[in-house]
Specification:
Blueprint lengths: L11 H8 L2 E5 L14 E5 L7 H16 L7 E6 L4 H13 L4 E6 L2 H10 L7 H11 L3 E4 L6 H4 L4 H9 L7 H10 L2 H8 L8 E6 L3 H13 L5 E6 L4 H9 L2 H4 L4 H12 L3 E6 L11 H21 L5 E5 L3 H7 L6 H15 L5 H18 L3 E7 L6 E10 L7 E2 L1 E3 L5 E3 L1 E2 L3 E4 L6 E6 L4 E3 L2 E3 L3 E5 L2 E6 L4 H9 L7 E7 L3 H5 L6 H4 L5 E4 L13
Parallel strand pairs: 3-4, 3-5, 6-7, 6-8, 8-9, 9-15
Antiparallel strand pairs: 1-2, 10-11, 11-17, 12-16, 13-14, 16-22, 17-20, 18-19, 20-21, 22-23
């Protein structure tokens, strides 16, 4: 089961100026050391000029940071902009962090969402938005707003054609018939009633890719019309450029610094019992060029702030649902070179994978299987691999997992402390439990890659002794995997063992490079925190 606990990015403008060498037109002797005069002299940029939209934007960004904002090291910047400004904002964030900015907080306008909230929502909005504004004001943050009057592309002197091309670079036009298939795989009624089971007046927090925007709008309108509280939507822009800029260029001390409003946000979400929906369709290798140690550093800092708050109150409904995008299909559907055709196939598969229209029956079946598993009171589960030719054990995996006397298998649905039943993962194909953390011994080798912090970890091999991982290897991104295992207490021990059979994910014959999907294709284990509800009496 995918747990939401965290334990589971040469100033070329100067170069451009140097290379834009003037050339002379007219009389070849127009200017010479004898001071002879010409009838006409014209200056024009050399045909070898390297001026591009990117260098133009870079020049504008540096002017804004150095002259207009006069940014000083350690200052934060608040940027308000439109989604079409993302290419400019990417360069802005990168340069700000290179100049020593503490934080670059970008707020992208979502007028359609605001209009729906104004039209339908009767409950008060989230107060953490005001606390966030107060935090940056207290910090003395610099603020800049980009809009039609202060257009970053006009400030960069981009031509109309250059502006159009730059905006197109972050816009994905999905044909109507494919959008309809994606909608079929992302059923707002089933999500609202079956997966999240949203209660009257309950707030909702949604995290999604920008490419999901149309379907998110449909869900938001449906939720408001059916009596939800305020809905806060956070879109990740293509390539996650602002977050990547911080991870690549911010000083380490700022990666470890978690703004106060992050704690305020989670406190309010817990107090107001906010339901959370995460649409999974990211690029599995979006952070491949980021130092893994810096990623773990930031993740650990955020976790140390957020986890105590999450544990301080009752956990509300949450769901992570598979929603493919053009980014997520490139590797998984590499056999289909046309991106839109690949997305169309992914949408068709997603409808089956998410078991749209049959989740209630499927969940009941899985829970029945879990009950039967509990009747056996298993003492140990033994995983071993076999050579495909000899059909004999090959030793690559030979893992003995000891179960606790009070271990219990669970599946599909969960109940909040208030008795609200919901489903945490979509897809869900597993019955799972938490083993005795001291009784895992032997070797395990993975057969599928693991997507971790925007990187793919492949060929994992681990040896456990008395519950702890004592040898850790990987064919790809070994350092990232080792840093992750060292990042938190218990991250080197098993927290889950899960059994899977007859999964529609497995039947696709594809590797999705996403833990949510790939773990639900086959039997698996997971390191880190276990589940309280998988140990009889733990919640008492």
């Amino acid at each position: 089961m995918t747990n939401m606990n965290p334990v589971n990015l040469v100033n070329t403008a100067k170069t451009m100026i140097k290379q834009a060498v003037p050339s002379f037109k007219g009389n070849e002797n127009a200017v010479n050391n004898k001071g002879l005069k010409s009838d006409k002299v014209e200056l024009s940029a050399s045909k070898n000029s390297t001026e591009t939209p990117e260098t133009k934007m870079l020049s504008a960004v540096n002017k804004i940071l150095d002259e207009d904002l006069q940014l000083k090291e350690g200052q934060s910047v608040v940027v308000k902009a439109d989604k079409t400004h993302v290419p400019f904002l990417k360069i802005f964030a990168e340069e700000a962090y290179k100049k020593g900015a503490k934080d670059v907080h970008v707020e992208i306008a979502n007028p359609e969402m605001d209009a729906l909230q104004k039209q339908y929502c009767k409950e008060p909005d989230f107060s953490y938005k005001q606390k966030r504004a107060e935090y940056y004001e207290k910090q003395g943050a610099k603020t800049v707003t980009f809009n039609a009057e202060n257009d970053p592309y006009k400030l960069s002197n981009l031509s109309a054609k250059e502006t159009e091309d730059v905006k197109k670079s972050v816009k994905v036009d999905i044909p109507k018939h494919i959008e309809e298939k994606l909608s079929d795989a992302f059923n707002e009624k089933e999500i609202f009633h079956t997966l999240l089971n949203v209660q009257k007046g309950q707030p909702i927090k949604i995290s999604a890719e920008r490419e999901h925007e149309k379907n998110v709008l449909k869900f938001v309108e449906y939720a408001y019309k059916n009596g939800s509280g305020p809905i806060d939507v956070n879109f990740t822009e293509p390539g996650n450029p602002m977050e990547k800029a911080k991870l690549k260029y911010a000083k380490e001390e700022y990666l470890k610094d978690v703004p106060e409003y992050v704690a305020d946000t989670w406190k309010e979400m817990v107090e107001r019992k906010t339901a959370r929906l995460i649409l999974r369709g990211h690029d599995p290798e979006s952070m491949a060029d980021v130092d893994p140690k810096r990623m773990v550093m930031q993740s650990k800092a955020v976790s140390e702030v957020v986890q105590p708050i999450r544990k301080s109150g009752p956990e509300s409904q949450w769901n992570i649902i598979y929603a493919p995008t053009t980014m997520s299909v490139k590797k998984t559907y590499a056999d289909i070179p046309d991106t839109m055709k690949a997305l169309e196939k992914a949408a068709e598969d997603a409808k089956n994978i998410n078991r749209v229209g049959g989740l209630d029956v499927h969940a009941a079946k899985l829970m029945s299987v879990a009950d039967k598993m509990n009747d056996f009171h298993f003492k140990e589960i033994h995983f071993y691999s076999v050579d495909p030719e000899t059909k004999q054990p090959d030793g690559k995996t030979d893992l003995h997992i000891g179960m606790h006397d009070k271990s219990r298998f669970r599946a599909a649905a969960k109940d909040t402390d208030d008795g609200v039943r919901y489903m945490a993962n979509t897809p869900t194909e597993e019955v799972f439990s938490s083993p005795d953390r001291t009784k895992t011994n032997g070797w395990v080798s993975t057969t599928l890659p693991l997507c971790l912090n925007g990187n793919l970890v492949e060929g994992i091999r681990m040896r456990f002794e008395n519950g702890k991982a004592v040898e850790v290897y990987a064919d790809k991104n070994q350092d990232l995997w080792r840093e992750h295992i060292k990042s938190a207490e218990g991250a080197d021990m098993l927290g889950e063992v899960a059994l899977v059979a007859n999964s529609p994910i497995f039947h696709t014959g594809r590797v999705f490079n996403d833990t949510l999907l790939d773990e639900n294709a086959a039997c698996h284990i997971a390191i880190g925190a276990g589940f309280d509800d998988c140990l009889e009496g733990a919640q008492d």
